[in-house]
Amino acid sequence: MSILDKTAAELGAAIKNGEVTVMQAVEASLSRIEESESLYNCYVTVDREGALAKAREIQKKIDQGILTGPLAGVPAAIKDNLCTRGLLTTCSSRILGNFVPAYSAQAVLNLERAGAVILGKTNMDEFAMGSTTETSAFGETKNPWNPGHVPGGSSGGSAAAVAAGECFYALGSDTGGSIRQPASFCGVVGMKPTYGTVSRYGLIAYGSSLDQIGPLCKDVRDCATIMEILASHDPKDSTSIKRDDTDFTGALVEDVKGLRIGIPGDYFGEGLDLEVKEAVLGAAKVLEERGALVEEFDLSLVEYAIPAYYTIAAAEASSNLERFDGIKYGYRTESYRGLHNMYKKSRSEGFGPEVKRRIMLGSFVLSSGYYDAYYLKALRVKALIKKAFDNAFAKYDMILGPVAPTTAPRLGESLSDPIKMYLGDIYTISVNLAGLPGLSVPCGIDSRGLPIGLQLIGDCFQEKKLIRAAYTYEKARGKFAGSMEHAGGRASGGKAGSDAGKEA
Amino acid sequence: MANIISDETIEYVGILAKLELTDEEKEQAKKDMGSMLDYIDKLGELDTRGVEPMSHVFPVNNVFREDVVTNGDEREAILKNAPEEKNGMFAVPRTFE
């Protein structure tokens, strides 16, 4: 088995017992990046020198017995909205095109403390606003399963990098599905933990009451292993929760006997692609055959989640993005007449159209006279949606459904109709509104050769149940349709992606 | 109910958002906002009387820490990002006349 075919945990173990060196792993990743980046464009920045230097440092610490964790020495990629000290961090936006943070996100620090080697920063939708990674200011990322299709978004670069073998795992962020949906589209595992589980310190904020950081990786074991490292109580994030149940790898058990799984009938209506429906229901059958109790029910309020989400997310985004004003960092316009003109020009030139659209909507719904009718109304609906989930979890251990209504769409087809694009978030969005954990695991391939993801949603703090069910399903499913041999292939030359900030 | 967004509204929102749009962008913004608000109007179908607006899912309140600086002097690293710098300070447009 070649190094790149190993999961993160397998590689960690191989490094631990000396079969593979950290340098070999890093060089293998960097070679793959060199081969396929011009085709897939997963990265905004590849930190070749930093990664090689880190490889030497980490190997030493492993040899000295200082680093003993399961992922020490494993190369990882970080979504470009997570601050990395000394390494360009752009949120795939021109307004941060030259921004080098003076600090690292807590999640990144947790990984580094565990011995991760950071390969670079992955491409995303600008400021995490999008579902296809097409709103990036640094070019679109292609889906390694079929480069004519999107990888999903907003953590599309991270998902594609894992699928293409350009890293062993990656970090993403999820505000409305931005980890789970690209995981589904790229045939990898992705998880969004319960709100407050992973510190948001250093995550450049989009929707502060919705954002969470999580892993994109090759299997459920990797997911649990990475989540254990990421979860921590952080006094620097006032929404960070103290949890003492984050030993997620303890849930890697094949046992779903008696597990009550609810399937929302309202997730399986019109608009859901037939092949996706079949694959997801097929996965439910697999769990049922292994002893889970599967039942259909009505979740309700499903069609109100999207308008509530977009109101709240746009409102919070408009506030969070006020700080990008050309004063202390980021893009400042060349010529201007006075302070306010400088603000307007810098922001208008630095932000892309989708970001501007959401800032405008957000400013409007928060403005005097409309605040009650729009923003507060949405927050009341959010409370109702949470209640609907509470009712569901009184009866079920978890909810099972699709991640997205379709597999990955073709590039260039989504941005012309924003509302249609927003509707693709229908199964993932309410999970963020209710602060719940959600996991996406590959469960099939459609007739176009594109992956289909299964979503498991749990009650707050119930990640272990999700991991147990996903692990059981994964073992029953077996190897996912060719996985790494298929995906990532050899780049056939292809055209050069956007080169902004490629090499740090 | 169709939301017709007026020119004044777009101007007003532009001021709030500190964005300057071209004429074509303004026209497109009127259309986009109109259709987004039409979609958001759907929330009006729900009876939310007596429902408290919920911002955070768990009541994690009054999270305090000591007001002590723990991350030292990063002046150099911070100023590296300054669009314009002078004598160790951010150089900015005049803020008052």
Quick structural gist:
By secondary structure, chain A is an alpha/beta fold. Chain A has helices at residues 8-16, 22-40, 48-63, 106-113, 156-163, 180-185, 220-230, 274-289, 302-320, 339-350, 353-366, 371-395, 418-423, 429-433, 463-477, 483-486, and strands at 43-46, 75-79, 117-122, 169-174, 189-192, 212-217, 260-264, 293-297, 398-402, 438-445, 451-458.
CATH architecture of the domain at 7-45 in chain B: Orthogonal Bundle
The SS-based structural class of chain A is alpha/beta
Just name the CATH architecture of chain A: Alpha-Beta Complex
At the fourth level of CATH, the homologous superfamily of chain A is Amidase signature (AS) domain
Give average pLDDT of chain B, whole number: 90
- CATH class membership of chain A: Alpha Beta
Task: Look up the CATH topology of chain A.
Answer: Amidase signature (AS) enzymes
Q: How far is it from the N-terminal to the C-terminal residue of chain B, by CA?
A: 46 Å
Give the chain pair forming the largest contact, with residue counts.
A-B, 70 and 52 residues
Q: Evaluate the radius of gyration of chain A.
A: 21 Å
In helices, the fraction of residues of chain A equals 25-40%
Largest sheet of chain B: 2 strands, antiparallel
Q: Rough shape of chain A?
A: globular
Describe this structure in words.
The complex is a heterodimer of chains A (504) and B (97). Chain A has 504 residues and is α/β, with parallel strands linked by helices. Chain A has a single domain (3-300, 384-486), classed as Amidase signature (AS) domain (Amidase signature (AS) enzymes), CATH 3.90.1300. Chain A has 16 helices and 11 strands. Chain A has an 11-stranded mixed β-sheet, sandwiched between helices. Chain A is globular. The two termini of chain A are 31 Å apart. Mean pLDDT of chain A is 94; it is low at 482-504. Chain B is mainly α and 97 residues long. Chain B has a domain at 7-45: Orthogonal Bundle (Histone, subunit A), CATH 1.10.20. Helix content of chain B is 35%, strand content 4%. Chain B has 3 helices and 2 strands, in the order αααββ. Chain B has a two-stranded antiparallel ribbon. In chain B, strand 1 (85-86) and strand 2 (89-90) form a beta hairpin. The longest helix of chain B is centred in the N-terminal third of the chain and has 18 residues, at 23-40. The termini of chain B are far apart. Classes of the chains: A alpha/beta (504), B mainly alpha (97). At the A-B interface, helix 9, helix 10, helix 11 and helix 12 of A face helix 1 and helix 2 of B.
